[in-house]
Design a protein that fits this description.
214 residues; two-stranded antiparallel sheet; 9 helices; 70% helix; extended; disordered N terminus
Amino acid sequence: MKSRIIVSTFVCLFAIVSLLGSCSKYGGEWVAKIDSDTITIDELNTFYYAQQKSLYNLPKEKIDELAADPAQVAKNPTLNKQEFLEQLIRQRLVYKKAMSDGTGKDDEVEALMQMAKEAVVVGFYVREKFKNEIEPTAEEVENIYRQQGARFKGVPADQAEMYIKQQLQQQKLQIKIRDMVEALRDEKGIKKNTEFLKKEQHKAEKKTEAPAAK
């Protein structure tokens, strides 16, 4: 669980830094400087809460509660703002080096950045749009806890409840997304050039075929 959270944190942080880079719009006291680039407390807080909310799907107040719980910080060290800032600095150091070396102009990088941007926007949009519709009821949480009691043996009740809520929220959100996509398909109309794609795939397959033995 801890390793998954750390990996998810790194990936999400990479996407945020890649999309936003150095943001001069933030005010407040500075908390770190990288040459001429200054990270302010407002910028740190904006990145921090955006990151943690994307991981936990919880409001700011609940994130603060998690950050005050040593057990939760042990699972996700970036709940500690000092650790989050250190990761942000590391990420930005490499990001700036990569951009100065011209990596940002690579077609594949631009494609990945566009995909990351779309994923971040979609994720934020659906969470905000459906946040009041995916909240699990106390009965739903209790049912899961009873059904999977052995799974939570030795786990504090509040942690088990939070985990179950997150899983139920994710399940409900996926259903909402599926229904929304189907509705949008009907509304917008989708056409795919299937025959052309088949030909392109066939060409690629022929190129990879091993030469016939003589």
